[in-house]
Amino acid sequence: MTLHTTAPEEADRLPASAKERILEIVADCRSLEGPLLPILHAVQHEFGYIPEGAKPVIASALNLSRAEVHGTVTFYPDFRAHPAGRHVLKLCRAEACQALGGHALGDQARAMLGIDWHETAADGTITLEPVFCLGLCACGPAAMLDGELHARLDADGLAELITEIGR
Ligand code: FES
Q: Which candidate in 28, 133, 141, 163 could, as Cys together with 102 as Cys, close a disulfide (CB 3.0–4.6 Å)?
């Protein structure tokens, strides 16, 4: 069995209380089959993102390499590297929605918000994220604003959503 050590420099940047909470989450989930994803989801739920310093803590606790944890975090677009804004707008970037005009909506959202994918507006109002299918493929383009689904979104509908959140 290979033992992996925690990188002290990153893990130590986490406040002790955060490290403790992450270890509690690991303890709660470690008996699950394939515990890494549930742990990462729980950490993001708790902190709003995956703190860089959480990765070596999780890696060490699960006896994984930091590269394995980092690779999983970066593979799934749902995991954030930074805290999200007060609102989170997710636009579907999967094929069915792209065929129905999703690409133009992505361009419109980025232009209206002045941010790119995965970014948060400087005033903290909103984070723009791509998603890859929201289960509304027949009613695309689809979006989700703060957990609420929106189907058949067009340019006017998107502008309305963005105006509603004060942008
Ligand atoms: S492809 Fe967009 S909701 Fe499925």
A: 141
